[in-house]
Structure formats: C-alpha cells, structure tokens
Amino acid sequence: MVGLSDLPENTTFHAFLWTKQTGMQDLGTLHADDLGSSATGLDEEGNVVGLSLDSTMTPHAFLGLLARR
Question: By the 8 A CB rule, do 39 and 30 touch?
Fold first, then answer.
C-alpha cells in the first residue's frame, strides 16, 4: 500500500510505503528543499511511483523507492 501522510504538526507531507513485514516507511522527497511528496501507485515490479513537489509547487515524477536512493 502507498500514499501520503502528514508529518507532525502538519508542516508537510511525505510519500509512504506500507507492507505487513516493515510497516509504514516514510519515503521522503526527491530533494531536501521539496515541499512534499505523494506515492500514487506500484508498478508491475513493486516499485513505488509518485511525485515530489519542489519549492515552486512544480511536481516531479519518481519511480522507485526514494528511501533507498
């Protein structure tokens, strides 16, 4: 399961991946100064797909596990 979750105090949101084995994993953002990220699905190989919003709110697509960069 994938999605997005607010961080403490609702300051931003991050993509997440949840599995029975690992629980909820925060996937972070593409760049340290990005405003937030959202995971929107899983591809055929189980990679996370989604987007990260930069400081101008421009979305940038990602494929793969951001936490494993």
Answer: no
The first and second tokens of residue 23, run together, are 């629980």
- Between strands 13-19 and 2-6, the pairing is antiparallel
**pLDDT in single tens digits along all 69 residues of the chain:** 999 999 988 789 999 999 898 899 999 998 888 999 999 999 888 889 999 999 999 999 999 854 444
Tally of residues, the chain: 69
pTM of the model: 0.82
Long-range CB pairs of 7-14 (<8 Å, 24+ gap) are: 12/36, 13/37, 13/38
Tell me how far apart the alpha carbons of residues 9 and 1 are, in angstroms, rounded to a whole number: 24
